[in-house]
Amino acid sequence: MTTPDLTWLYAVVREVEDGTLAGLTGVAGEPLRVLTAPGLVLVVGSVPRGGFDELALQRRLGDLPWLESAVRAHHRVIAELARSGRTLPLRFATLYRDDRGAAAFLRGAGPRLRAALDRVADHAEWGVKVYLDAAAPDPAEVGAPADRPGTAYLLRRRAQRDALARRFEEAAAGAREIHATLAARAGRAAEHPLQSAEASGRSDPMLLNGAYLVEQDRAAEFGAAVTDLGRRFTGVRLELTGPWPPYSFADIQPEPAPEPEPAPEPEPAPEAAPDHVPAGRAEQGWPAKTPSAEGG
Fold it and tell me: Is Cytoplasm among this UniProt entry's keywords (predicted)?
């Protein structure tokens, strides 16, 4: 007896233009198809249960080469849809046991999905990260009697620690001001958890991991504001990424599905979609809590 496939969810859109999905494949190399409800289209694919059930997916999420490829494939579908119009990305590894469950989600969440699509119309997401600048100022030399070199060493170390602490506090305050300034220029804004050096690929401490929903015709103005803030605030470096589909602003939080599959807890994913944000939002079904990355 053939084991039925699982249904993998990619995104919700208003409509899919003819030819958009032609030749486009999903995380398992599967062709894509659509499920519909009034005014809504859900783009999905069928993935083999044997490779994507709880245990299999748990193993795969620890396989970084596979994970990188799969996250990129998921983002590639969303990015292609976003080129054609307003798009609500669904979180990587959002799965239903079958199309019936996915269709029930689409119908039940219809009013919220339509409202969210209206909010992101003619907008794109931009990410701004702020890092502490690696070039630390040298603290002033602290004098000590020549016959007490140990005391001089301890005083220098204390001065270095105090200078670094002051520098970090000033930079953190600057990052908060930067976020407030950019949020005022955006339709919506979000702060995501700061990334470790391993996740960000940078040794400098991250002070801000912000996401901003910006009108498309104001993108140049927003970019200029980021450049200006980078000049104004010393001791920090700003990094602008985008435009991305609105991963941080999908605002889809369905009620829990009956008898959901347990969600595995994977290792952090490599970069393949905006890395300032978890890939979409946790949906009904059993999404794995996998962060996305830019590349997406």
Answer: no
Spatial distance between the Cα atoms of 261 and 240, rounded to a whole number of angstroms:
37
Return the structure tokens found at 128.
């701004």
26: Cα separation from own chain's centroid: 19
Say if 118 falls within a structural domain.
Answer: no
Question: What are the C-alpha distances in Å from 124 to residues 132, 232, 271?
Answer: 27, 25, 19
Residue 28 φ then ψ, to 5°: -105, 15
- Residues 56-82, mean pLDDT to the nearest whole number: 93
Farthest-apart Cα atoms in the chain, separation:
87
Confirm if 122 and 215 have CB atoms less than 8 A apart.
yes
Domain-embedded: residue 117: no
pLDDT tens column, 12-46: 999 998 888 998 999 999 999 999 999 999 999 99
Measure the CA–CA gap between 36 and 285, rounded to whole angstroms: 18
> From CA 152, how far away is CA 80, in angstroms rounded?
62
Q: State which residues form the domain around 7.
A: 1-109+252-296
291 within 8 A of 211, measured Cβ to Cβ: no
**In this predicted model, what pLDDT tens digit does every residue of 196-235 receive, in sequence order?**
888 888 888 999 999 999 999 999 999 999 999 999 998 8
Nearest to 194 by CA among 177, 178, 209, 173: 209
Same domain, 55 and 129: no
Residues 216 and 290 in one domain: no
Across the beta sheet with 206-215, the strand order is 188-191, 206-215, 123-132, 236-244
